[in-house]
Design brief:
By secondary structure, the chain is an alpha/beta fold. The protein has ten helices and eight strands. The longest helix is centred in the middle third of the chain and has 15 residues.
């Protein structure tokens, strides 16, 4: 396997693409390019979770896909935890605001296209896969990849940027719904999202137009790729309605999709087994039923991208 870390933006160490390229041999593809999965970890746009990065890449490698993990613009580099006062104290980098994270998915697509021969990767068969905020980022890309906010920024043929499929794990898809639900509840969740939302949209993030612009379930068009969604009914941080609302939007637009809602499990389950669970959270981050999502997703993905698809 060939693995390397590539900086996608000159002068910045935080926006990177890590490659996981399977070796080939005369017993396998004999030089034929593989399809790929581009992975966006979650982390509320405050960090990129390690639990939703390399372990997910390894899981897709098992099914024969090349994998790439994108670390997109977030508030922290993982060296220290965030605190709610950081934004007020201006310790959050103000450069890292919407729409940069979804544009960086486009940068990753362009990078893979540029290296497609070296990496033996079929640039027309790339699925995007994201979790939580990374799922939101992927859903935003899925609804914006062909729009000027991305195409004009990158200045490349939009077909280079087209995702072949999209996989979303417990995604946040509706900022208007999240704002109304968390503010009404008056819980710590509203304080948590206030920090992340100020980072993404600025001090005036409670503006309805801004919230709508960040709500991909209200922005679905015919350009959105086939989509696989999974979540858990007991997710208290990002309610399951984000998944069902996005699925409904896909259905109304005639976009092929598959939706799996598992009964048990908390937010941020990743692979739902001990390989991606915190030691102190094994009881809520592991589930024998929910861990089947990766098998379901791989089976579904073969309908749209597969090793021997022409």
């Amino acid at each position: 396997m060939k693995s390397e870390v590539i900086r996608l933006i000159k002068g910045r160490n935080d926006v990177t693409l890590t490659t996981y390229i399977l070796d080939d041999s005369s017993e396998m593809l004999q030089g034929k390019s593989r399809p790929a999965v581009l992975i966006c970890p979650g982390g509320a746009y405050l960090c990129c979770s390690d639990r939703e990065g390399e372990p997910i890449a390894m899981a897709f490698l098992r099914y024969g896909y090349n994998a790439f993990v994108l670390r997109y613009s977030v508030a922290y580099d993982g060296t220290r935890p965030y605190h709610e006062t950081d934004f007020a104290n201006q310790t959050i980098n103000p450069v890292k605001l919407h729409p940069e994270p979804m544009r960086e998915i486009g940068l990753a697509f362009a990078c893979i296209y540029e290296h497609r021969k070296e990496w033996k990767t079929d640039a027309k068969q790339i699925a995007i896969c994201g979790f939580s905020a990374g799922g939101h980022n992927c859903a935003m890309y899925a609804t914006h990849w062909s729009k000027p906010v991305i195409t004009d920024f990158l200045g490349v043929d939009k077909e280079i940027l087209r995702p072949a499929a999209c996989i979303l794990g417990y995604p946040l898809t509706d900022y208007l719904y999240m704002y109304e639900a968390t503010k009404k509840a008056g819980t710590d969740a509203f304080k948590f999202f206030t920090v992340a939302n100020r980072l993404m949209m600025g001090e005036d993030w409670e503006n309805e137009e801004k919230l709508l612009d960040m709500s991909p379930d209200r922005l679905v068009t015919k350009e959105v790729p086939p989509t696989f969604i999974w979540a858990t009914a007991k997710d208290e941080l990002v309610p399951v309605a984000h998944s069902t609302k996005y699925a409904t939007a896909l259905a109304e637009a005639g976009i092929p999709f598959e939706l799996h809602i598992f009964q048990d499990g908390a937010h941020g389950m990743a692979l739902c087994d001990q390989s991606t669970s915190r030691q102190e959270a094994l009881d809520v981050q592991t589930d024998p039923n929910a861990k089947a999502w990766i098998d379901f997703a791989a089976a579904w993905l073969e309908k749209y991208i597969a090793i021997y698809k022409s």
